[in-house]
Amino acid sequence: MKGHTAHAARLGLERGLREFRHTLLSADQTFNLFVMVAFVVVLVLQRDSTVEGTALSLAAVTMPSSLGMIVAFNGLVGPAGQLAVNREDGTLLRAKAVPGGVVGYLVGRITQVSLDALISATCVLVSGLIVVSGLLGGTNWPLLAAVFVAGLLATMPWGAVVGSLTRSPQGAMGLTMLPMMGLTAISGIFYPIYGMPQWVQGVAQVFPVYWVGLGTRSAMLPDEAAAAEIGGSWRHLETFGVLGVWALLGFLLAPTILRRMARRESGADMEQRRQAALQRGSV
Amino acid sequence: MVIEVRDLRMRYGTVDVLRGVDFTARRGEVVALLGPNGAGKTTTIEILEGFRAPSAGHVRVLGVEPVHGDEAWRARLGVVLQSWRDHGRWKVRELLHHLGRYYQPYGTPERSRPMDTDELIKTVGLAEHADKKIARLSGGQRRRLDVAIGIVGKPDLLFLDEPTAGFDPHARRDFHDLVHRLADLEGMTILLTTHDLAEAEKLADRILVLAGGRIIADGSPDQLGRQVAGQSEVRWTSGGQRHVHPTEDATRFVRELLAGDDGVTELEVRRSTLEDTYMALVQRFESGQGEEVAAL
Known about the structure:
The complex is a heterodimer. By secondary structure, chain A is mainly alpha-helical. Chain A is built from 11 helices and no strands. Chain A has one domain. In chain B, strand 1 and strand 2 form a beta hairpin. In chain B, the strands form 3 sheets. In chain B, strands 5-6-7-3-8-9 form a 6-stranded mixed beta sheet, with helices on both faces. In chain B, strands 2-1-4 form a 3-stranded antiparallel beta sheet, covered by helices on one side. Chain B has a 3-stranded antiparallel beta sheet with strand order 11-10-12, covered by helices on one side. By secondary structure, chain B is of the alpha/beta class.
């Protein structure tokens, strides 16, 4: 039986790669293009301001921060939206009808979301380098990769939970996009966090977005830039600690919720959602 | 027995959808579950597929209780649901090949799994569309792909829920041919739901009529015809006048008619069709329901 699960997981990996390839050639990438353009504009505007207490331009700090934000964003919004859509269009039910299909489906989704995050991050990185060159040389790549993985682990299960609980893709997007935008605004991504009131700083430090951003900054910026952070340090222990707790709680909770959702999934429910989608005019 | 159902009940909130369904299906049989919309056909089939837990009753599919069916059990089933529109970005061959490989560990020396992808594509008549994106298929082509996915694992038992809903007559006929070919294939048992009587008659060895949450008739199309036999109609012309007479025993009526009247012409005997039978069954049941309600 164990061998059969491994077989299904391998097929899931292949599924994720295929679906990722499908998105590469699709309209999905217009979003990445839009992000790249918007990002370059933001960096150009920030090029001439410097961060208090350092010689770094604001743009040089925003670039790694955005990289962190984009990881958390993909990790949360990606699974939520895809799960909600796949419940509506029958992909999930199809997976249930095939032996080992649910394992394959989940591995496929994890693979695809990770690759999506990677391509988004690459887009941000490449477009950022047009404006802020010179960061690459000092980048600690293993640390950056570790933050990338930790950021995904801390957010993906929560995205899956939201995608399992909402009734429609629109609901899933609303429930992930809006909090994400709010958190991005207060987490020192586009503007240093010390500009925020004390209590807002406190709130931001509860959630993963701030910590992923701090982690990516620590991996890409020179050490003296840590002076501009809370406590004047990169706080690696806290970074991986907080992200680890989110990941742990998420992976404790998500399987139960996913299983319950998958068990309840049936053709009649799907038909109902399809009818609702038709009424909304989105099919 | 491939399917064994005894006193199956399903209740949603306070509504009883199934009120004691009983039937069985043998290996290699093609069974049609026929009934008006809302009769509980889809609910029944979803319980058998293991997608829904019944409220009560004894259900065995391939000897296993569906809600407890494991992946090896799942591998022996083929499922074609009503409204699939998934995997729009995948190509026909790509998806069929991918999904087929999930069945590979469940092959046995007698029954190798899965089927060959290209052969299967040919079987369902999608050879020209093998490299097409699934989102670009027509409704009928999409449905045939659904069936191909349903049988790619060489199931012992195939479920088809309203397989031809939304088909034009041509696509429908092609599809019927396909089902006939499948039934001949390695003794596959097929359970299909439909609200189209002509379709049930054409495809099934046995028809189960489901109405008001119960099986109200169970038999071959022939047997069903005889269950409400007698409602034949005799028409004739005599003395320039057209006569119509419904009778239980047409043979005897005609014998007496001809013996007593030399001027009979244009004699016609119409036996009740299966459609008349079906309508009568459902009607009889529904009026029975009406009495129950009135009695309260």
